[in-house]
Amino acid sequence: MVSDEERKVYSQWTEVDGDLTACDPDTAHIILESRLMFCKNDRSRSKYWSIPDGVDCLNDLAYQEDGLRSHKLDLYLPHDAVLRNGKSLPVYIDIHGGGFMYGHKELNRNFCTHLAKTGFAVFSINYTLMPQAGFMEQLREVELALAWIKTHLNQYPVSQDRVFITGDSAGATLGLYALAIEGSEQFAHTLDIAQSQLHPMGAAFVSGLFNLNPYVSMRPGSFTPEGLETDGLKLLAPNFFRTFKENGGEQLANLSYITAEAQLPPIFLNTSSDDFLQAETLNLALALDKQGCEFELHDVHVGKTQVLGHVYPVAMTWLEESQQTLQEIQAFSYSLL
Predict the structure, then answer these.
(1) Is this structure's pTM higher than 0.85?
(2) DSSP-derived secondary structure letter, 87
(3) DSSP codes of every residue in 172-232
(4) pLDDT computed for residue 228 by the predictor
(5) How far apart are CA 122 and CA 47, in angstroms?
(6) What range(s) does the BD-FAE-like domain occupy (predicted)?
(7) What values do phi and psi take at 70, rounded to 5?
(8) Closest Cα partner for 111 from 230, 15, 206?
(9) Residues near 14 by Cβ (< 8 Å), separated by ≥ 6?
(10) Which pLDDT score is estimated for 221?
(11) CB contact set of 63 (below 8 Å; sequence gap of 6+)
C-alpha cells in the first residue's frame, strides 16, 4: 500500500500507480514494488536536491501538443547566458533513468541544473513509462523530443550545432540507441524511427545498461527472480522489448553491431567499482575501442569504507566525486567544440 503522504511526495518526480490500473496484476505488482524501492532511496536524497544560484528554469515545454506530462521537457540555462543573449552556449539533452518504469524529468532536475552551472544549456526530457510504453515507443518519443529541440534551438540563447546527449542507467540505454539512430540510416530504417537531424557532437553516459541481448532474448516464464533491483526488468522484458524484437532487435541489441554500423560521436563513460552495472560500461568501452571509436572512460575506484553506488553523479551531486565528474564532463565536452 502507498499512503497519501507518500504518493504526494513521490509524484513530484515519478508516476506512482496511476498508470497501472489497466495492466495485469502481476505486471502492476512488479512495477509498483520497483518504483517504491526507487522512491525510498530517492526520498532520503531529495532533501539535498537544490537548484544552484544563477540557473534559470523553463519548465514543461511541450514537444508534443497532447497535454501529456510524458511529452514535456524542461530547459535550464545559466542566467549569464540569458543576459548576454548569444548563440554560443553548448547544449546537453538529458534522458533520465529509472529502469524504463520510474521517474519523470524532475528526478534529474538537481543533476541537470548543476550541469548547466558548469556552462551548458540543458534540456531534460520526459517519456512514457512502462507499462504504458515499450522500448520502441520510448525510443520513438526520445527522437520526437530531439526533433522538437532541433527545430526550436533558435528560440533560445544557445548554440545551434554544439549539442550533446546525456543519460543515466536506462536513460543511457535510450541515449545510446538514439545516437545509433542518428548515426545510421540503416539503423533508423530498420526500427522505422525518423532521425531528428540533430547530429550530436558527443555524449556522456552514467552507469548505463547497454547490452540488451539478455533482455531481448527473454521468453515469457523463462526467468525466476531473485530481487527486484536487477530482476524486475527481466520479468517484464518479453513484453517490453516485444516490438523492438519484431523489428530486428536481436541484431540491433548487439554492441558489436551498434559500434560497427553507426557513426557514433565521442562518448564519455562514467561508472564506479560498486555500481551494479559497472560491467555494462566496461563492455561498451571494449566494443568502442575495438571499432576505433573515440571515448573517455572514468571507472571510479571505491574504497572499502566508502559507498558511491549506481548513478552517483546524478543522484548525489553534492559529493566530491560527483562534482569532479561534472567537471570532467565539462572538460570532455568543451574539448570537442
Answers:
(1) yes
(2) S
(3) HHHHHHHHHHHH-HHHHHHHT--------SEEEEES-----HHHHT--TT----S-HHHHH
(4) 47
(5) 22
(6) 73-191
(7) -70, -10
(8) 206
(9) 35, 38, 39, 98, 102, 103, 104, 107
(10) 61
(11) 71, 72, 73, 125, 144, 145, 148, 149
Q: What CATH number did the domain enclosing 69 receive?
A: 3.40.50.1820
CB neighbours (10 Å) of residue 142?
26
pLDDT, tens digit, 9 for 90 and up, residues 261-270:
999 999 999 9
Q: Which of 140, 105, 308, 130 minimizes the C-alpha distance to 234? A: 130
Helix axis angle for 25-46 and 228-240, nearest 10°, is: 130
Percent of the chain with pLDDT over 90: 91
Helical pair 170-183 and 135-152, crossing angle rounded to 10 deg: 70
Report the C-alpha dihedral over residues 312, 315, 317, 321, rounded to 10 degrees: -10
Nearest to 148 by CA among 103, 109, 201, 156: 156
Structural domain harbouring 44? 4-334
Contact 157, 109 (CB under 8 A): no
Sign of torsion over alpha carbons 241, 243, 246, 251 = negative
Q: Where are the alpha helices (DSSP H) in the chain?
A: 4-10, 25-46, 79-84, 109-117, 135-152, 170-183, 185-191, 213-216, 228-240, 242-246, 249-252, 255-261, 278-290, 312-315, 320-334
- Binned average pLDDT, 10 residues per bin, the chain of 337 residues: 93 97 92 95 96 97 97 98 93 98 98 98 99 98 99 97 98 98 96 96 98 87 53 88 92 94 98 98 98 98 94 98 98 98
pLDDT at position 229 is 46
**How many domains does the chain divide into?**
1
| C-alpha cell recorded at residue 10 | 513521490
